[in-house]
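Data deposition worksheet. Section B asks for the primary sequence of the deposited chain exactly as it was used as input, without tags or linkers unless they were present during the calculation. Section C holds the resulting structure in C-alpha cell form. Section D is free text for depositor observations; keep each observation to a single sentence. Incomplete worksheets are returned to the depositor.
Section A, Depositor: J.P.
Section B:
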Amino acid sequence: MSILIVTGVEGARNCAAVVAMQLGMEVEVADGRKDALGALRRREFAAVVVDETMAECDPASAEAIWEHAGLAIPLQINFALSGAARLVREIRAALHRREREQMLARRAAAATIETELKSTVAGLLLHSQLALNGSEISSPAAERMRMVADLAGSLRQQLNSPMMARGDTAA
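Section C:
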C-alpha cells in the first residue's frame, strides 16, 4: 500500500521522500484536488494526508477527497507547522491503530462464527441422537442417522478444542 499526500506546500516532495524512507512505503504527492482525485481513481491508498491549510481554504475540495478516499485512513496535518518527523509519527500511529482495529474485528467475527457453529452442531447432535432413540427407524435409516450423530459429535469435539490445538492461526 501507499500514502497520498495532498498539499500545495513547496518542499512537499522532500517531505514525502523522508516519509517513504522511514515508513518503507511508496508516497505520492498531489498538488491539489484534481490531482488527488485522479490518484484516488487510479489506485487504493493506506492513508490520505490532506494539508490543513488547503482543507480550511477549500472545504468542498477536502470533502471530495475524503469521499473518494475509500478505505484509506484520512489524516489532516498542518504542513506549515509540522515537519516530516511528526508526519511519520501521525501516519505510523494511524496505521497501527487500523491494524489493531482489524485484528479485533477478525477476532470478534471468529468468536461469533464459532459460537453459531457450536450451537448448530449441538442441535444437530441432539436431534440425531433423539431420532436414534426412536424405535420406528428402519435399519438403513438408523445407520445413516448414526453416521450423522458421529459426524456431529466429531465436529463438536473439534469446536470445543482450543483454537491453537486445531492449527487455527487467524486469531
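Section D:
The chain has a mean pLDDT of 87.
The helical segments are 12-23, 33-42, 52-57, 59-67, 84-133, 139-160.
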